[in-house]
């Protein structure tokens, strides 16, 4: 009986939690503001106690979950419409590099060491600080970077060229199985696909691990045959 009670509690709490999260908005965990992150920790503690202690009344736990989510939603609304309060209780976007120079006071306030900034820059393929015009630590802890003009990549608009529009590729074969619905959506048939696969020396769908095609008819094919494992030769 106790296992049935625990099962019902888990199902009811997770269903309620999912419903409330969908109603209050969806964000990546890495992008959660401080208060939202704290709300998740508190909810986890409340739910954990409810599941681990079947003798604890269940309805007060459900009420606590609803109350925490409602408070979190109200705080989010306040932060959205009142920037003064938002700056007091959250970590807003903060400039840590300006005109290529570190702003030490901001880094000290955020407790954000130079090593973390350097690592974040390397993750954005920036290995030379001379390339950085601005670096901003976002409320999520991620870093946004604006390079100096001379280090920005050249775009077609810079060269007064018309950029070619790119469309989404659609899977046609997955693990050797034809996706007939997608093939029809592209207005192609099996005869057309067989002709295209022949150019890749493929005679049967079972030879293809994955294949997709753009609306323009550009095909990508990855065969079932295994390639040499790079990790077997080098330690990364």
Describe this structure in words.
By secondary structure, the protein is α+β, with helices and mostly antiparallel strands. It is 44% helix and 15% strand. It contains eight helices and eight strands; from the N terminus they run ααααββααββββααββ. The strands form two sheets. A four-stranded antiparallel sheet has the order 2-1-3-4. Helix 1 (2-24) packs parallel to helix 3. The longest helix has 24 residues, at 58-81. It is flat, with a radius of gyration of 27 Å.
Supply the key terms.
alpha+beta, four-stranded antiparallel sheet, DUF421 domain-containing protein, 236 residues, 44% helix
Principal-axis shape: flat
Widest sheet, order of strands: 2-1-3-4
Distance between the termini: 52 Å
The quaternary organization reads as single chain
Order of helices and strands: HHHHEEHHEEEEHHEE
- Nearest-angstrom radius of gyration? 27 Å
Number of strands: 8
Averaged pLDDT, please? Answer: 79
Fraction in helix: 40-55%
Which class best fits the helix and strand makeup? alpha+beta
Provide the low-confidence segments as ranges: none
As a percent range, the share of strand residues is: 15-25%
Q: How many strands, which pairing sense, and closed or not: the largest β-sheet?
A: 4 strands, antiparallel
Number of helices: 8
